[in-house]
Each structure stands twice: as structure tokens, then as C-alpha cells.
Amino acid sequence: MKRLICSRRSTVRVLLATVVAACVLALPTMAYAKNVYVSVVGSDTAGNGLSAATAFATVQHAIDVAASGDIVEVGAGTFSGDVTMTAGVSLYGAGAANTTLTGSGHAVVTANGIGTGTTISGFTITGNTTEDGIDCVNSSPRIINCAVSNNHYIGIWCDDSSPSITNDTISDNIYEGIEYDGSSAPTIANDTISGNSDGVYSTSSSSSVITNDTITGNAYEGVECYDSSPIITNDTISGNSDNGIYCNDYSSPTILDDTVSGNITHGIDCDSSSSPTILNDTITGNTDDGVYCDSASSPSITNDTITGNKGDGVYCYSSSSPSITNDTITGNKGDGVHGGGNSSPTITNCIVWDNANLELYQCSSTYSDVATPVVGTNIDADPYFVASATGDFHLKAGSPCIDKGTSVGAPSTDKDGMRRPQGGGFDMGAYEYYVTLATKTKLVAPSKVKVKHWLKLSGTVSPSAASGTLTIAMTRKVGKHWKSSGSKTVTLKKGKFSYSFKPKYKGTWSLTATYSGYTGGKNWTVYTPSMSKTRTVKVK
What we know:
This protein is mainly beta and 540 residues long. It is built from two helices and 54 strands.
């Protein structure tokens, strides 16, 4: 009986092994991604593209040979462009300073029907004497670390496309640096865009993001929005020969945390029923008005500093009705806020002070520091800026603008991101007043302790109201070097802290306590970090 059972088991094992082998043989062969190489000394006929030594000569041939998931790696040198990308095949050069693609077709590089899995990186894309540098049609490639320059038409053109355009230099193209339309929603981040006609031209698009870019020295607009509503945030938009940002034809962009300065016409121009959100921006030193509103435009202008422009701070005309709240508008060469032509700006919680002409012209205000004439809830007093000559428009202690604003319509934070209100009420202007106090940290530790015994640390942060957390970093000396043994974050309780641990190794230990700072308290005081305190302990 035992022999029979063993025989049956052996038969089952053989059958299982046969089935598994058959399944494995039936599986398709797995394709592995590979690099396909291109070199100035390569050959499309003699090479196979599988190594630098056997590289192809032309980029297009390498793309045609490659499969989805492959990378075409192009060496240093100048190569013929007019390249058409293939879905899933990425294109890498040896860096924009080393590898150049040039051509004279519809575009030096064309991406048509390409998804997000394709990258174009490390090239100078230039020299198209008739058309564009890069064309994206129904495509979303990553375009990173490239220089797109000196093309006859547009640097990068997007039609129904949403590429990620990051860390690029887009310069000196005859028309736009970047243009997109249709249902395009590109992400344009960390780029330098200069010397083009318009820096960025956005049309018929509502979800693009323009962030952390430097857009400067373009022949017309820095950013032009035509029937579109991009998010424009954390950019420096300066020195363009027309407007910094131009909003036209029912555009409603979000303009957030930008510096718009030194443009030859207006900082921000709102026209043709446009309603941008202008929030937390610095709008300064433009040749004409800081913000210009015309043709039934109704922007929301909040928490901005609008200073040192050679025209008016805000100019409103032709049925424009902007909402101007918690702004600091000062030092402009024209009026602070200029209304007229059936415009009806609403000014609340603002400081409109020390402008060269009138503070307000044909407009009204509430809860604002607006100089004469004083009406209702307004005041007329020096706002006591910290240092207006150097552009610091925070309020000093004792400013008459502190706690004199209204909560109605006020933003929840100020230009610095500090919560409103701080203290007894909302302040006028772009900044809430708060107290900054330096702190002092004390750390107590024994001079020596036995290994694997408790090492107890304690200390204080003064003033004791400086709540929050403190970090204790531990390092030990190994030979001539210090090696980290981790860190611990501890919570302060009425300015006191304590922490204990058992050191596992003998030797010299260094313990450093650093206070991380805290914002809060009864009067919303800001407590700043002190110098770190360090103690040395011998572990025996």
C-alpha cells in the first residue's frame, strides 16, 4: 500500500511539473527596455545602436528602431532635427551645452499623440528658420533641462496638449516662447523665458500652471492670457517691454505670490471683462500703472504691495469694478487708486499713502488709511512702515493701522501667510502686525555616564511662552569622525523639556538641542530659534 501511494504521488509531481513547464513556454517573451545610442561618428547602416561604439548616426533612425520604453541616448555634437517622436520612446542628450538639434521643417521636434511616458531632455533645440522649436499635438511629454532658442516662430507650441515644461531656457524665438491653446493644460515650472515676443501666450485654456519661472526681457507681454485662466504663482515677471501680465477677453487667471516689476507698461493689465485674482503679489517699479483695469474688468486685488510704479497704483476705467482689500498702495508717481469712467472700485482695509498725486480719485473706501479727506471709518495718519525706503512695508509697533480694519471680507492670512487677525482686530494693509521675540535655549546633561545606563537631558527655552517643539541631535565620535546616532523631537511644556535614552556605545557623545521656533500665544507673538546649545558627555 505504501509503495502504491508513493507511486501515485510521484505521478502527480511529474504531471504538475509538465503543466508548469508548458505554462512557462506559453508565456510571451518579456521585452526589456534598452538604450539606443546616437553619435556624430555613428552609422545607420553599419551600427546597431546598442552601444556607444556601434551607435547610429541620426536621431530619427534611432527613434524608428526603438520600442516603447526605450531611451534614445544622443551624444555630444550637432544633429539634424525635424524629429518625430514615438510614443514611449524618450530622447536624452548629453546636456543642452553639449548636444544640439537643429532643423527647418514644421518643428525641430514634433510630438504627436505622445503620452506622459516620454521625455525630451538635455538638448539645445534651435535654428528652425521657418517654424517652431517643439510642437506638441495631443501630447503630454516631459520637456526638461533643454534650451529652446532662436527659432523663427514659437519656442514650444502646444495644441490640445499638457506637457511638463521644467528647468528649461526658452529664449530669443521670433514669436512666443511658449504658446498653448485648445484644451491644453501645460505645467511650466522653474524655467527662464526671455527675449521672445511674448514670454507665455495662453489661449482657450483654463487649467495650466505657470510656477517658479523667471519671465523677463520679452518684446511684448511677460504672460498674455486670452480667454484663459492659468494659475500664475511664485514667478518673477520683470523687464518685459509691454505688460508684465496681460489679461484679455474674459480671462480669470490666479496671480499668486508673484513679483511683477520693472515692466515697460503696466504691471498687470486687466481688459475686456477679465476678472483675475491678484493675491499676495509684489507689484513695483513698472513704467506705467501697477494694476490697470479697463472695459468692465473686475479683478480681486488682495494682500498686495503696489509700490513705486511710475503711473497710478491702481487705475480703473470704463465700468471696471475691482475689489481692493488689505493692500498697501504707496510711493507711486500718480494716484494711489484712480477711478472714473463709470468704474466703481471698492477699497477696504487698505493703506493708500504717500503717493505723488491724490491717494484716491473718484472712488470710496472704508476702514482704510487714505489721508484726507477722512470719511467714516477711514483714518489719516502715518502708517509707520518698518522701512519703506528699502521696501519693507510691515507695520511698526504703535502704527495707527493696527487693529483698525474690519473682518468683513478680510482674508484669513496676510501677505506673509500669517493668520489674520493677530491681537485685538484686523490690521490695515498687506501685513498683520506681530511681535518677534528671540529665544534662549539651555541644555543640562551629565558630564559622564555608564554605557547602557540612562542618560537624562533637560533644559529650558525662554521666554517660557515660547511653546512648540525642540530637536535633540545625538552624535558620537568614531575614530577622528563624528557619526550620527539619530535625533529626537520633544515638546516644550511651559518652556521646559526633558529626554532620556540609553547610549549603546562607549566614547564621546555630543548632544545638541535646537529650538524650532513657534508662532502663537495670546498676542500672536513669533518666537524665533536661538543658537543651538551643545553638551559633551563621556560614556564609559
